[in-house]
């Protein structure tokens, strides 16, 4: 009875106190009080964290809604809401964000016990590499924009120059923040950190909306749809360029219009990384059972890179031909047939690879990673959310193709392309999501410990054809070279042509290094089982395919604009609105899929 009451945390009755120790109930009572105290403290921390996330999220939501209303009002009523009003609002947001990013890097991160935990899943190497690449292109875009505004025909307004300058400062400060501190789980100044992160995230999202709906991009797309309406020397008013600096002005304008896809990707990448930092504020991570993602090495793949490279080269050739004809003359029917034929051939192969990878995932005996991981959850949400853009375009195209003339060659290719796009997105999403949920093997990307292979223990072939291990003392038969242990000292007795002898020796050493590297690579490839080899091959092939499918629409190959089928069915303004929503999401989907496939390759 006393033991049961003690286990329940209650003091025993007076009748049982004489037969048991008086200290035991007190110890159990104190433990129960301490556990209740700790649990109440943890509950208060969680409640404060939830409240901070709620109010900071509400701030970001209201800022985004206000900015979107201003941008859309500028599109519908340019007289009431001018572009200067929009840029002044965004400039204020950028100034506040710059101040907070500098404050976090110089003050918050240097406080004692500011960062006790780091999220190993956040800030993958491919994400930070893309951040640097797209950030540099975005800064170059702002420089082109300054040059265009300085050489334009209209009188300069201070906001037109101030806005791109602030963009350069904003991109620079934000890139440094995300490069060095994206893994932080901040434990101090929770409130100001959360509000600063959400304000910066809202600024990036509004800049993305501004770029998508920018009037200059719309004019560029319309001129691509009607090549006969391209700008000429007499059409200076539509471009805003003066006649004296027409060539320079058009060069600047063409430069920043070309770099818009990089700016779009940069804003969305920053939004995703800032969201992960916001989720990690105040988070305490248990390092028990965590695993670090291995570094990228081209290991265990042969056919995937070969087939993917061929697909990439063919796609670049078709894209170049398409763009040359689009910019020099009216697009012919053969150009559309060539483009659609390439995509209709490639997309089913990608779908089959994704289905094969999903089947291999089901055959693997690996557990699902059920631990809390904001990065993985965000990857899944972004993957599914970005798919909505291609889905919307494809379904509208299907309706237009079936309703007009589904028996025509171009219409049937367009219909097939739209259907295959939907199927390919669905099966690739399943493959990537299943791969992200799997726990990596115990020795992912490592050589088996039972069969170690060291570089200095591989056999090499000497001049007589005999095999001798590297690193041991040996002397060549002709006495021209004496190599001592471990290759630390080397004495050469060369003939009358020392330069020729040294050149032959360097070539021989290069050939030996190549043989060693090839031997080690093939041994590593043979050590993987067929499931891991197949997953790596599929992942690399799909990575290269998604890259070419990102390049084509991002840099102007958009047959949905030029073929005229959907535009004639829905009307120019309606179809432009649909594409203006769907195409940026489709471009982001391809880039985000590359990141997910890289994770699958590394953990396969």
Please characterize this protein's 3D structure.
This protein folds into 3 domains: 2-41, no CATH class; 49-290, no CATH class; 299-446 and 516-604, no CATH class. The strands form 3 sheets. Strands 5-6-7 form a 3-stranded antiparallel β-sheet, with no helix packed on it. Strands 1-2 form a two-stranded antiparallel ribbon. It has a two-stranded antiparallel sheet with strand order 3-4. Helix 10 (260-280) packs across helix 20 and helix 12 (333-363) packs antiparallel against helix 17. Helices cover 69% and strands 3% of the residues. It starts with a helix and ends with a helix. It has 20 helices and 7 strands. With 604 residues, the chain is mainly α. A hairpin with a 6-residue loop joins strand 6 and strand 7 (490-492).
Task: Describe this protein with a few key phrases.
mainly alpha, 7 strands, 604 residues, three-stranded antiparallel beta sheet, two-stranded antiparallel sheet, single chain
SSE blueprint:
Blueprint: H1 2-7, H2 14-17, H3 23-76, H4 83-106, E1 115-118, H5 125-150, H6 158-181, E2 184-186, H7 190-212, H8 215-225, H9 246-258, H10 260-280, H11 303-328, H12 333-363, H13 374-386, H14 388-404, H15 409-437, E3 459-461, E4 467-469, E5 474-475, E6 481-483, E7 490-492, H16 498-527, H17 530-554, H18 559-562, H19 565-570, H20 572-603
Antiparallel strand pairs: 1-2, 3-4, 5-6, 6-7
Helix pairs in contact: 3-4, 3-7, 4-6, 4-7, 5-6, 5-9, 5-10, 7-10, 10-20, 11-12, 11-17, 12-15, 12-17, 13-15, 13-20, 14-15, 14-20, 15-20, 17-20
